[in-house]
Amino acid sequence: MARLKDLCQNPELFSSGHRACAGCGEALAVRQILLAAPQPVVGIMPTGCTEIFSSIYPHAAWQIPMIHTAFETAASTASGVVAAYNFHKRQGNIKDDVKFIAFAGDGGTYDIGFQAISGALERRHKFLYVCTDNEGYMNTGIQRSSATPYGAHTTTSPAGSVIPGKTMPRKDLMEIVIAHSPAYAAQTTIALWNDLVTKVGKALAADGPSFLNVLVPCPLGWQHPGNLTIEMSRLAADTCFWPIYEWENGRYKVNYEPKEKKPVEAFMKPQGRFSHLFKGDAGKAIIDEAQRQIDAQWALLHKRQEAFGAA
């Protein structure tokens, strides 16, 4: 496990002064990941929240080489960069062991960039793909994505007399990625910084494509105060709304077991995007269904660990 004392000695590769919203979980994730990444490292970033707040011309928060690409092409651009690097490494033009990290949000990963990441995983390009998942298209107006959870209000799944928020559960991207047999895949969140930076080290050391799905609360889209970002992240883990686990060498491992598994209401109640669910019996039925889905997923994850866990 990483030590905070050691991390503090590493250079800050994501500088302060960027234009993220107060309490932005995405900015915290990028900073933690780059603190843990061995140097040299090259980044690839499509359009999304991170690109908007970190690289508005003529300023940039990135203290590493960063390639900005189109919304849907994070993984395909990273594939090409890695292929070019491997060619020049074989030719003797590059001596350094360079690491490559693609940073993309849930819109650019679960939806728009889904085909590209599937292809990159199948072709076995060696880079780390990080999905900073704030569960919606936050930089373009808080529209729903396939990562948006069941029951959440967004501008394209508005809670009202017609629908009670999003009516479908979110896509289980981790299991889709695992079906591609990557070298390493893991799910984590910013409140559990030690778990996050440890998984960054594992992912970058893996001999093949690796993937991290990082939950990053968004005060604007989730409608919670900016000073509750870490608390929301922790509640996501403590309610098992966001299971913390990894997949390595064909084996599952749950990395975080809450001392007391809290009801999903504890995670939902501080967020304005779920406020409509606390106003009558119809909302209670949706909360109960959300709890059922979470409990079923948590039980299934443990069955997978029992069947395909460490010997």
How big a fraction of the residues is strand?
Answer: 5-15%
**Distance linking N and C termini:** 21 Å
CATH class: Alpha Beta
- Looking at the structure, what is the overall shape? globular
- Could you estimate the helical fraction of the residues in percent? 25-40%
Total strands:
8
Order of helices and strands: HHEHEHEHHEHEHEHHEEHH
CATH topology: Rossmann fold
- Cα gyration radius (Å): 19 Å
Unreliable sequence segments: none
Do you know the CATH architecture?
Answer: 3-Layer(aba) Sandwich
Structural class: alpha/beta
What's the overall average pLDDT, rounded? Answer: 96
The biggest sheet amounts to: 8 strands, mixed
Please give the order of strands in the largest beta sheet. 2-1-3-4-6-5-7-8
Number of domains: 1
**CATH superfamily membership:** Thiamin diphosphate (ThDP)-binding fold, Pyr/PP domains
Number of helical elements? 12
Describe the structure.
The chain is an alpha/beta fold and 311 residues long. The protein has a single domain (4-308), classed as Thiamin diphosphate (ThDP)-binding fold, Pyr/PP domains (Rossmann fold), CATH 3.40.50.970. It has helices at 4-7, 25-36, 49-54, 74-90, 107-111, 114-123, 173-178, 193-205, 219-222, 229-238, 264-268, 281-308; strands spanning 41-46, 66-69, 99-105, 128-133, 184-189, 210-215, 245-248, 251-254. The protein has an 8-stranded mixed beta sheet with strand order 2-1-3-4-6-5-7-8, with helices on both faces. The radius of gyration is 19 Å and the shape is globular. The two termini are 21 Å apart.
